[in-house]
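For the sake of transparency, this paper describes our internal protein records without simplification. Because each token names a local backbone shape, the row as a whole describes the fold. One such record is reproduced below, unchanged from the form in which we store it.
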Amino acid sequence: MKKNNKIFKDLSYALFGIFLLAFHTGANAQQDPVFNQYMNNLLTVQPAYAGMSGYVNITALSRIQWVGFDGAPNTNTFTIQGPFKKYNVGLGLSIITDRFGPVRQNGVYADYSYRVLLEGDQYISFGIKGGFNRYEALLTDLSVHDPNDPVVAFDINKKYLPNFGVGFMWHADNFFLGASVPKIFQNKINSNSGETVYREEMNFYFMGGYVLDIADNVKFKPTLLARWSQNTPTVADFSANALFYERVWVGATYRMQNSYGLLFQIYVNRGVKLGYAYDLTSFRPSQYNAGTHEFMLSYDFPVKRKRFCRFTPRYF
């Protein structure tokens, strides 16, 4: 088992090296939606996360971005997941709706994970996800300088883009480390003139977090979610959160060269958690919008824990 631990330690260093390399890679545009409360939305990009908490969980998250800015992104996600001890697996379902200007996207993905117990109550989980995005763009509604531009002469109506992804996580009660590629197929949509107007990129995600006891009834949790793709800019989210009396989370977030904000979460009872986050952009358009609001509602079903394997607690 010591050999296994050495292998996973070396693997973690390799992943961290890949993450640092991503910081030096240039790109042109952003594609997937991002969240400040990403730890409550990790299933959408990491299939190995399915069932990891040990509870049957339902989470709804809504992000209203750049308030006051016409056509600003509005993203909503709904996830459900849970573990199954008999086969040592986790199952999950993610539903995503995203609106940005004339573009509408709706995605439905199912997730499957399988975990293996290591020494010292550590686990390694492997996951796979599969589903589709429904993409449409109301291009004829745009105000353009050249009304004869063939790219915006026709709407794109309900194109279905099937896809699948993979991921893995190494985790224990107080930490996790993982990587994933949620979309492997690089689907593309062409206009009637033959020009590519949309393409799904292969995004590589790296994620990690750690929980420390810093005082009586106070825990500190730094986390990271980074994304890299050949044709899109690197996105790295850093957050630092403190948990007081196992009930209230208070934290700050920073998205590299993009935004910064605060978040607050509270456990109303053992099953219900409410969350709110607010951020402001750190680049020039911030003067034209009133920031971004993010609302979260999460519920853990009261199940008998002895039916399941031991998983990472609700810190993640």
Observations:
- The chain has a mean pLDDT of 80.
- The domain at 2-307 is CATH 2.40.160.40 (Porin).
